[in-house]
TrEMBL record:
SUPFAM superfamilies: Metalloproteases ('zincins'), catalytic domain. InterPro entries: MetalPrtase_cat_dom_sf_prd, YbeY, YbeY_CS. It is an enzyme of class 3 (hydrolase). This is Endoribonuclease YbeY. The gene is ybeY.
């Protein structure tokens, strides 16, 4: 069982970050780590930003000069093996997940569900990237989507919930 220190940094002032939203972020991180059978002590940093901030990061790290919803920066390269587990011996920074709350709000409206569900999804998506999941090719995308849905279901944030 993992002991996770979730550090939330609100680096934007366009969308109010409530205690309820912070609790949801903590729950999403911890559930993803638990479902993925990660053990040990680790820290995850969640940065909440606006479109302008994430666009700068996207341009700098991905050469895409546009805002995006979530970026993940893993502190170590992990390779996911089906049925495997991740074990951390001492507290280790798993990585940073950067989420644009502006994009999350727009996408919640676009997809017809709550802002909280969208933020929860983006947190889970970012954590799975930190654990080595990807969605560039068909099979990887299917596996990652299945993992996302399983974790969201565990925290009662399935697609059908508004």
């Amino acid at each position: 069982m993992a002991n996770v220190n979730v550090v939330i940094n609100n680096l934007q002032d366009k969308i109010d970050v409530t205690q309820k939203l912070e609790e949801l972020i903590n729950k999403a991180v911890n559930t993803a780590i638990s479902v993925e059978k990660v053990s040990g002590d680790l820290e995850v940093s969640i940065a909440l930003v606006d479109d302008e901030y994430i666009q700068k990061l996207n341009r700098q790290y991905r050469s895409l000069d546009e805002p995006t919803d979530v970026l993940s920066f893993a502190m170590r390269e992990t390779v996911f093996e089906e049925g495997g587990s991740f074990e951390f011996q001492e507290e280790e920074l798993l990585g940073d997940v950067v989420i644009s709350l502006e994009r999350a709000k727009e996408q919640a409206v676009e997809y017809g569900h709550s802002f909280e569900r969208e933020v929860g999804f983006l947190v889970v998506h970012g954590i799975l990237h930190l654990l080595g999941y990807d969605h560039e090719v068909g099979e990887e995308k299917v596996v990652m989507r299945q993992r996302e849905e399983e974790i969201l279901k565990a925290i009662d944030l399935t697609r059908g919930i508004n």
